[in-house]
């Protein structure tokens, strides 16, 4: 009896010290989160001590040992976009065109977020792909209500863990070609963003990996190229962001692919990210065009977490589908009669390494 009281006092003391010192309480119990994130068997409620090398094969991932399907959807009937508030819509419903997990209501986040708000000129909607019965998620922007253009799908709560893979089909409207005579080069046209961790909320060590499209030269160009970069946000001595807006960022790496971005045709992108330092962090992007083999776009071994992080707890918030840019690009397209438009389809999100993009047998239908 006496011992139990002592143990209880000890536990309370430890927790109090953690809270008072601002140490992340969750990181003290990190092994729980890591197992959830990295081992499929643990996700299914098995022994929480299993590691990545667990022998029990997880469900839903027969072709990808060690990975687990977290969610998939082709935006087919049963799914729809509802309004949350002026700044956010939400994707809801079950996509019966695919097997579970296919319920948007169970995917943490699943918001469509805008810079300050949506309108007829800037919106994310599930629509019928013109001329077909196929449904897609459409991002459309002619004019932003804010100083920048943003439409994005959020996936939250760190469900992807410290290593994840996803595939998404993408179609870029031919109006995008109007940017070929944009007068300047541009680096900022984000198509996906991965926060490890996010600077909003009360999270330490803010850091992000960004994937985007670049125009690499001023004046007229023939092609755009995929690119990616990673940035540390400035933090104080305890690792907290020094500012939530106008954050001082340090770019740790930036790579631009030699693979041009297809315009006006469907292609599939496959992203793989692994949390780590300059030797263990990975960002891999591959692409499959219709009827073509898988193609390496970018393969980076470098920082995918804050350089000063004293603990790792996975990617907390990701925007796997994103259209985020300078209004000058949106204006340039609109002023020439067009709109910035992406279609998305067939999202498959996995915890773990589920890369198949370079397998020529696996092409988009
Ligand atoms: Ca579809
Ligand atoms: Ca993290």
Quick structural overview:
The protein has 365 residues and is mainly beta. Helices cover 13% and strands 38% of the residues.
Helix and strand content put the structural class at: mainly beta
Percentage of residues assigned to helices: 10-25%
Tally of structural domains? 2
Strand content: 35-45%
Tally of alpha and pi helices? 5
Task: State the distance separating the first and last CA atoms.
Answer: 66 Å
Architecture overview:
It is a single chain. The chain has 365 residues and is mostly beta strands. The chain has two domains: 1-56, no CATH class; 68-351, Jelly Rolls (Sandwich). It has helices at 2-21, 25-28, 30-38, 40-43, 327-335, and strands at 68-73, 79-85, 88-93, 109-114, 122-128, 135-141, 148-155, 163-172, 189-195, 207-214, 225-233, 249-260, 267-274, 282-289, 294-301, 317-326, 340-351. The strands form two sheets. The chain has a nine-stranded antiparallel sheet. Strands 1, 5, 6, 8, 13, 14, 15 and 17 form an eight-stranded antiparallel sheet that branches. β13 (267-274) and β14 form a beta hairpin. The longest helix is centred in the first third of the chain and has 20 residues, at 2-21. The radius of gyration is 21 Å and the shape is globular. The chain starts with a helix and ends in a 14-residue tail after the last strand. The structure holds calcium ion (2 copies). Residues 196-197, 312-314, 316 line the site of one calcium ion.
């Amino acid at each position: 009896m006496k011992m139990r009281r002592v143990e209880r006092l000890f536990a309370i003391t430890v927790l109090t010290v953690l809270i008072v010192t601002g140490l992340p309480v969750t990181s003290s119990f990190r092994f729980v989160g890591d197992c959830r994130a990295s081992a499929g068997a643990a996700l299914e409620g098995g022994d929480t001590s299993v590691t990545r090398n667990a022998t029990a094969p997880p469900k839903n991932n027969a072709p990808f040992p060690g990975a687990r399907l977290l969610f998939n959807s082709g935006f087919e009937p049963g799914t729809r976009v509802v309004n949350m508030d002026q700044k956010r819509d939400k994707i809801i419903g079950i996509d019966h065109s695919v097997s579970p997990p296919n319920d948007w209501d169970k995917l943490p986040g699943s918001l469509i977020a805008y810079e300050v708000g949506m309108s007829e000129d800037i919106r994310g909607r599930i629509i019928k792909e013109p001329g077909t019965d196929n449904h897609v998620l459409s991002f459309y922007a002619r004019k932003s209500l804010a100083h920048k253009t943003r439409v994005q799908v959020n996936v939250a709560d760190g469900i992807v863990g410290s290593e994840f893979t996803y595939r998404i089909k993408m179609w870029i409207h031919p109006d995008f070609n109007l940017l070929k005579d944009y007068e300047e080069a541009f680096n900022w046209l984000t198509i996906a963003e991965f926060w490890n961790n996010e600077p909003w909320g009360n999270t330490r060590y803010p850091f992000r990996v960004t994937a985007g499209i670049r125009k690499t030269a001023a004046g007229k160009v023939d092609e755009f190229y995929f690119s990616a970069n990673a940035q540390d946000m400035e933090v104080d001595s305890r690792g907290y962001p020094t500012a939530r807006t106008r954050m001082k960022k340090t770019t740790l790496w930036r790579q631009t692919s030699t693979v041009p971005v297809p315009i006006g045709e469907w292609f599939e992108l496959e992203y793989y990210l692994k949390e780590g330092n300059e030797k263990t962090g990975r960002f891999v992007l591959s692409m499959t065009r219709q009827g073509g083999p898988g193609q390496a776009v970018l393969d980076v071994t470098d920082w995918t977490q804050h350089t000063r992080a004293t603990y790792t707890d996975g990617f907390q918030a990701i925007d796997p589908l994103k259209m985020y840019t300078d209004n000058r690009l949106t204006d340039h397209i609109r002023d020439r009669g067009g709109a910035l438009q992406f279609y998305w389809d067939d999202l498959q999100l996995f915890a773990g390494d589920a890369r198949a993009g370079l397998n020529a047998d696996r092409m988009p239908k």
